[in-house]
Amino acid sequence: MTDQSDLRHLPEAIAVPRQRARVSAVWIIPILAALVALGIVIHRVWSEGPTITILFDAAQGIEAGKTFVKYKDVKIGQVTAVQLSEEPGKVEVTARIARSAAGLLVEDAQFWVVRPRIGLSEISGLATLLSGNYIGFEAGTSRNERRSFTGLEVPRIVSANAPGREFLLKARDVRWSSAGAPVYYRRVPVGQVVAYDLAPDGKAVDIKLFINAPYDKYVSSETRFWDVSGLDISVDTSGVELRSTSLEALIGGGVAFDTPAYADPPAPAVDGTPFTLYRDRTTAMRHPDAVATPYVLHFDESLQGLSVGAPVTFLGIPAGEVTEVGLSYDAATLDVRPRVAIILYADRLLEKFPSNLKKGRAVVQRLVEKRGLRAQLRSVNLLTGKRYVALDYFADAPRARLDLRREPLELPVVVSTMPDLEAKLASLLAKLDRLPLESIGADLKNALETLDQTMKNVDKTLPGVQTTLEEARRAIASVDRLATNADTTLIGPNAPAQQELRDALQEVTAAARALRVLADSIERHPESLIRGRLEKE
Amino acid sequence: MTACPGCDLLQRLPTLPGGGRARCPRCGDTLAIEPGEGSLQRALALAAAAAIVFIIGNTTSLMGLSVVGRHASTTILGGAYELWLQGFQVTAALVALACVVAPAAYLSILLALLWMSTRSPVPKWGGRLMRHASFMLGWSMPEVMLLGILVALIKIAALATVVPGVGLYAMGVLVILLAAIKLTFDPRQIWQRLAWH
Amino acid sequence: MALSAAEAGLVACQSCGLLSRSPGEQLSRCPRCGAGLASRQRYSIQRTWALAIAAAICYVPANLLPVLTTQTLASSRSDTILSGVAVLYTSGSWPLALIVLVASVMIPLGKLAALAYLLLSVRLGSANGARDRTRLYRMIELIGRWSMLDVFVVTFVVALIQFQPLMASQPGPGLPFFAAVVILTMLATTSFDPRLIWDAAHD
Questions:
Q1: Which listed residue, A156, A255, A269, B160, has the most CB atoms within 10 A of its CB?
Q2: Would you call A130 and C166 a contact, using CB atoms and an 8 Å cutoff?
Q3: Thinking of the domain C42-202, which architecture would CATH place it in?
Q4: Spatial separation of the C-alpha atoms in residues A286 and B6, rounded to whole Å
Q5: What is the mean pLDDT of residues C85-107?
């Protein structure tokens, strides 16, 4: 218990005054804070655009709150949720699009996932390995708003607003198979294949191309398109040729186009009219309306190596091609003969070939009967075994008449000068086989042995042999010399060396001949070795 | 008359001028702060501002980060959530408590009390609330968090491009406001209004 | 004459400051605010010792185990508190390194040392420097929370750096231990009754 008195003596706490501050000014602070908060809220609500849903088959690399939606590389929205859709097998991606882009959300707007795609012909989206996948967007042209979409599985190749034109091609089949393959004009990439699909009737492939401005003006109604994918290996009269447009086209395919020189003044290409996709440049640039006159040839030899499409030359100039290779059956003679049908493009040869058919045939008749125009099978080269038909003047060919009544005209033929390489080789081998090389060799060996012995004993009595051997020795020596100096004296414009070689060869030939004669005579008169040639004793 | 909370010395409290403070002669602890005129009002204004700023700071992103075209941003709760996801639930709860729960509780209690105290005598449960408020204040550390964020910001800035967000500035303002509240507000004012039954 | 309330048989309410007569050792409630009254905190010394020792035990794994792991495309590194300070220093931002060093290493150690000192001084009944000791206590109270700094740094680095596979980060096992150190020392500080200093001085 304490006394009240104690409490009176308690120390007093020290009073420390403090400055006064204004009162009402304080309320500015919360008001300010409230205004800022309001501003933030309004800004959020104002800039927040609509929410959309996109259905994808799979949402690789799409994360809620992280993945963006981009249009022309500008972020226009962000993914807010990814979940399985009610539709089986699909994923529903919910995204919030910025208000500024809300106007683009129309019926035919398209979405797809941009992610690394690496295929044999397509490498795209590699930047997303670092930056993360995003959803690409392409605006549509419709006016109707839309909020739920189905995403594309394959990205759009070309932006809808890119300047340029779309063209349609039809092809029997395609050697390549990828959208995005390049389109070339004079080897410059000027566009892309946008899509390819089976035609509705299933008989052709519809290919859609997009050619960027300003190159689309080079496409006229006369333009030809051809396939440049892979490697073009062509064998024609000038030899074997390997052609490829670019590495990209090699792997992934491509299309090239050009307008043939003979085309009429170009009219702009009509929208929607399909062009044909040709197999290669030659086929594409062929004049379709060329006057093609058909002819028939009957050969009496094997047509091995001649195929449809093989070239036909006239005096060495390409003038047409083979259209049929087959047999014809002559009912009258019960004979089966090889038959070749060709077509000639007359205006390839002559600028002013008479277009009048009758006149044209008269010209051909004169050439056949007076100048000796004949057809002959020739090899392109021995290596490939391919052959072609050559029309040439054969002055010493047996006379022939052109039967003008036959339709098509039949041209006379001459036999080819180069029979089968195989047959030749076979006969050569057979000939070689028949030579008694073994026995000749054995005899020669014996002869030389005896010769050697005789040489030791009797060298005066056989001057012929001596000189022959001398010659041989000299020849061998000079060959030896030649061999050691071959690289400096043989090759090149150094004529003396070649002359030397020729001399040496001549000597060798002479020696060989002399040796052969000797061998012959020894064979006939073996005793001449010992006794020497009987000089009419 | 009161006993110093620091050294238990019995002493009398003098009448303090407005805004003055009483100090224990023995240990120097501040015993009381005499409120200036309208200091309750001031405290209320500051607390209201602090509450608004706190909400801004927690709903907007603290900072945005971009590297190689990828972006990230986070709020305070997002940071705690990330810790939770990584398996550090206790630490995550602690961070959430210290940075969000405690300041929120403190501010809301304070607002309630301040608002109540401007009207009628404060009911008894006000006392309990006061105790809770001071407990929460003991555990709220937004200023430490702010410094932590700044250090983290500078650390990250070495790796990527950092853009400070609205949330960061809001937290900065919050720290200032909380300090101001501490200076202008003395719980004793509430106690004085408490009816002593 | 310096009289403490306890000596006078009075109790000052910790919450509202009201002086009321102490009913002795019984637990009582403050008539004004209803807070639990206690002349001195019960078992203050014991509790403070226990918490401080627990904090000291946790301090070892907190510094030995890494608190932050970062991976980039090329490398991966795990950092403890100290190696994190070293990284900050070598990367040029030595002010930050200093701040983190002070906050994460010096302050916890300082707190533990100060608490030990205060506890010992009370136990030994030393009479001098009570004012300073009180000031020390107030300082521990104020500064203690700042050692949570590194926890927040790690939290926000991890929250933001999540760009697999470019760079990613995770908190390390040392982090909860470090947080435990901070919490335990904070609890130890609140469980220490500073009036005990003056009681000892008085006696």
A1: A255
A2: yes
A3: Up-down Bundle (1.20)
A4: 109
A5: 89
